[in-house]
Amino acid sequence: QEKASCLSAALFGEDCEISRDQLYELLKFAALGKCHNASQPSWCRIYRQSHLAGVVVVVLPEMSQLHFYQFYLQFKHLRKVFRHRFTLTPSANFLASLYGEGANPKPQNTAQGILLGLTSTISKSSDLQCDPIFQKYGGKKRGLTSYILTSEELNKYDYPIKGSTRWKGYVCTGCDKQRTDSSPLFGLDCEMCLTAKGNEVTYVSLVDARGQCLLNELVKPQSEVVNYRTSFSGITEEMLLPVKTSLSDIQTRLKKILPRDAVLVGHSLNNDLQALEMIHPSVIDTSLLFARTGSRRFKLKFLAKAVLGKEIQCEEMVGHDPAEDARTALELAQFFIEQGPAKVAELNLEMVLRAENLAEVSKKKDALQPQGCRVQQQSNEPPHLSKPCFLECLQVTGQKPLLLGRQELDSSGLCQSNLSTSNKQILQKALEDVPLSTFSIIQFSLGPENLSSRLLAELCEKVGSKLTDMLTIYAGPFEENFCLKSVKKKFGKCGPIQSLTVVTETYQPYVCIQYEVLEAAQLAVESLDGAEVAGSCIKVQRPVTAAMLDCDVLIKELELDVENEGVIYVAGLKRSITEKDLQEEFSQLKDLEMLFLPKDLQSAKHRNCCFLKFQKSQSAVDALEVINGWTMKGGKLRSRNALASGHLWRWIWQMNHSNGKQRGNIFYKKMQHLPDCEQDLKKKVKKLDNHIQKLYRSLHNNTLCVVLFPGVN
């Protein structure tokens, strides 16, 4: 979420350009949070970074802003879903620079030849077979029944068992139906306190397979409490004073809730069932499911972060939340069943835990060291050593970065093409692997045949010519001795004029007007066509060329673009008016979020138009009705929906002013081979858009997705 000032400027073309370093700031903080010196980006802000499920960067290596504008209609999905867009400043060796300082990932070919070895996780099958999870369950996916503890395991791990004298008096759940792979899963967790009797339950939570709470109750212990264990349980004496629910009440409710084929999931669930004094035959214990060497077990907090990427049992909370713990254990079991043991083994949890422990030890050492020593140590660091890139930091924290694409990096950091891999294969691989990775870079390619400098130059010229034509209108016919000044005044009320010339090649004179913003040209077409100007009833139209035949469609799509949602254009302002004047005049408009009065990028003078952004789309519609015909300081206002977002508006201005040239249609005569190439490009772009749509739909909720058009230089 952008800061208001940044969003305002970016929206209207002042700060809609970001650098490679700024992009790196965003990706680093999104991936790492506050770890490894990552800090909030300087140009925007990410709220609740810990809630991010992952970061996905889609790179279209040969494509630039030019392609986005030329194939705007073909990028149907991109322009409807991605509402924040920025111009990215060009940089050499872009893909290598994306990895940050000191990054030098080495390619590691897979069967498909598309996966870069950016992770230090297990990749060789021989190493994989040494993993305790792989050794216990094999590599193939199985149904949930394969992970239910056997009667021998229940006995070994101290679970209450029916018929044993040790568990005499324990209540059976009554779930005696045969289990299948479609049997329902339920997450269970309890908090206990120490009483004269031993461990007694004080809080019970039960969640269903969707994570919804079915039971979340405080329980009154039967015996006198010796220790509430508040730091772990979160339970205090005051909390239990009004509680009337007894253990037998909870037992009865659990028996009613659980279906006869229910499978209970929990972390060291034997302790919970003992505290509940209940026997249940079908259990998946996540402390045993994620097997370790020997008899050691991973903590639930660690598994939640390393496997699910979520933080639980936070330090600022007093005690554990049993509903959260029950839900987490359930999600871990679901992850294991859905992904299979081989994918879980690839996470290399032992290595992740070791790295985490080393980082913790290092942190404690630094805290104990005197400040002066730390400063001295930093000053003695060799100057040539670069900081680790954030992909390396991800590996240390146990996260799994992933790079898929047709381009790989050699030892020098240069891109090498692997043309045997298709975009379709990359997409298929991405659909399988991206959900398992917390940071992914996916490259789709148009192919080297679309990189020729001649083709790009012609494409650039064509896009420039089309934009110029969209900014241009022809008005007439006029009488021979018409007043050009009155024409300029009339059309100037629609917005800032770039140039105005009289066309004399026709029987009667016409006027060619080129505006600086698309909204002004469209407003002129809509409001002055058929009007009487300078004593003549005139027709207002855009140039008629092959490229302009779809102009109306393009205008309509631009108007519906998510970036223009709730934004309107207002023209007819007096040059003397200030931003403060506008704030006062428009203060009565409902839900007005921000106002922008553009300046000429050369003279820094205010234009005779402004943009208004509203919090709600309907408020923008209502404002249009109010503003049209409104008189402000002697000037009559005209307004319409915005068409050009900040980056497009700025780009148009740069193209119109580059080298002081005006772009015309004469270049079309030289474009002999472009039509066939362009048709081929259109098909490829439509396919790319479909690929991105499929990938986007497969992403987990709360995933930050970035699409880059880095260009070729």
Automatic annotation (TrEMBL):
Pfam families: RNase_T, RRM_1. It comes from the Eukaryota. GO terms for cellular component: nucleus. GO terms for molecular function: exonuclease activity; RNA binding. Residues 471-545, 566-644 form the RRM domain. Keywords: Exonuclease, Hydrolase, Nuclease, RNA-binding. Transmembrane segments: none annotated. PANTHER family: RNA EXONUCLEASE 5, RNA EXONUCLEASE REXO1 / RECO3 FAMILY MEMBER-RELATED. This is REXO5 exonuclease.
